[in-house]
Model the fold of this input.
Amino acid sequence: MLSYRELLKRTKDEIAEVDTRAAREMTDALFVDVREHDEWEEGHITGAVHVPRGNLESRIEGVAGDRSASLVLYCASGARSAFAAKTLAELGYTNVVSLAGGFADWKRNGYEVQLPKMLTPDKRARYSRHVAIPEIGEEGQLRLLDSRVLLLGAGGLGSPASLYLAAAGVGHIGIIDADIVDESNLQRQIAHSLNTLGTPKVDSAKQTIEALNPDVEVTTYRERLTSENIERILADGWQIIVDGTDNFPTRYLVNDASVWHGIPVVHGSIYRFEGQVTVFKPGDGPCYRCLYPAPPPPELAPSCAEGGVLGVLPGIVGTLQTNEALKLALEIGDPLVGRLLLFDALATDFHEVRIKRNPDCPVCGEHPTITEYVDYVEFCTR
Ligand SMILES: [Zn+2]
Done:
């Protein structure tokens, strides 16, 4: 019967070992961390992949399908990785070495390690009600702080959305709006106030967000979205779009861009006492053109001047949009994909209509006919 020491020694004789300095020169090799999950979480070699030794046989092919690939296995001190190297040799891997001294030695030499990202005590306090939810936790909050959400419009829908996204700690918020704050906005556009009357809405909203949460970086675009600027704006890396616009040209532009770039759009619209919300997630449900392939002729569209709205309605719809955006950012729950949620404020009634992807859709269908941006004549949806 062999003792552990004897077994380790015999195993080490059968495999190849490298010291940390030699391993560091192996820039083409894949580093495989065979430690346990919590050890990996506390820090690991930069660029390494994690395959705990207990799952080595079943998972190694997923990270290194090629059995002649150069692999450097490591654990804490070089023992577990030695046994792992022997296992891989038995599986037919021909170019495997074990890191002598392991992660401990690597760190001691001051080589590159990736330390865990953690919330600072300030942030842990600020977001404690998120951290307390198992579905979010510290990891989810870090994810929100890393996420990038673009708001179209800093008006009725964009105002509550911007405030709640900022409060939630969405780290990067972009706002597109060309308008100036007007007195008639204040009945519902809560990101603005008497103090910012006459100033650009993007600046007013930015000021409000920064006063609420300095963790948020705000990028402002004081312009109207057009086929000319949409690519430049999306090049800033926005991951989710919250659409609070009220006109057809923008709605179609955003739809087409989102399909081509694979960016989900949280759509909202309001009129008098009625609101609608849905999520257009490319590849996973219908797009706006699946429902409305092209805008109606201008003479059939209601004029902008007629539009009235109950002041709180955009608050309700805009916060529902924010709820969807946060779920998308966190990848939790069931987003409103393929579901159009209708709200009637007078009846206080929500109901849902299923909406389907149209295989003949001119943009996301099987044979798309629209492949570049179309600028429609501007008119209001309602
Ligand atoms: Zn479509």
User: Anything to note?
Assistant: DSSP finds 15 helices and 15 strands in the chain. The CA atoms of residues 168 and 224 lie 27 Å apart. The chain has a mean pLDDT of 94.
